[in-house]
Fold:
Amino acid sequence: MSDTYQHRARKRFGQNFLHDAGVIHRILRAIHPKAGEHLVEIGPGQGALTEGLLDSGAKLDVIELDLDLVPLLRERFGDREGWSLHQGDALKFDFARLSDRPRSLRVVGNLPYNISTPLIFHLLSHAERIHDMHFMLQKEVVERLAAQPGGGDWGRLSIMVQYHCRVEHLFNVGPGAFNPAPKVDSAIVRLVPHAQLPHPAQDVRQLERVVREAFNQRRKTLRNTLKGLLDATAIESAGVDGSLRPEQLDLAAFVRLADQLASCTPEGARDER
Structure:
């Protein structure tokens, strides 16, 4: 990259710019963009991935918060066909603006660690429009996303993301691939929204409530941690052992608890929440 595009990473934006060519090529191979596809890149930074995404012939919308990077990106990519830049906060961005076709958007991003979880939940609210997502995240976050029941990584993030998506932990990336080097390891994750939910809940808001309450005190038994929502009889009626701890339950069991709560909660009360 020429001096024209040098930019000091800003701590308040959580910027760590990817510069390792080998890692960049490996990420692009994992994404495997194709002509005719519609890609969305969140936080393109200095354009490490942007060029390869555009070279595929895909249409590319990029969302960048840092105003100082906007002229640099426009100088580098502004004349490329199919490229559009949106300056703003991805957490507030309405992804429905980009497409009204189901499963049409492929989302890519090297996400700042401080916004990765809320941004994933924001994108899940547009899951019906998304074909897949490939993110660079803190390695510990990816381990939580891909976790299975029974371990310490299994929790709210694992359950709610796996409710909506298939999760694949693709590979890890060391700090040396970035400038400045972060103090943590990173990893690439692929999230693919389910065409049909494997365990659909009657009301996903009730699932969110149950999971949040269950893991607020994860070392306690479900009978204790859920007592504000479901009594022991209701838990048993859902086919769940109330003496278990929340990390011991799989997604299907949490959905049964949520459906039990939905059946006990008046419709008006659900709407108020």
Observations:
- Residues 251-264 form the longest helix (14 residues).
- The radius of gyration is 21 Å.
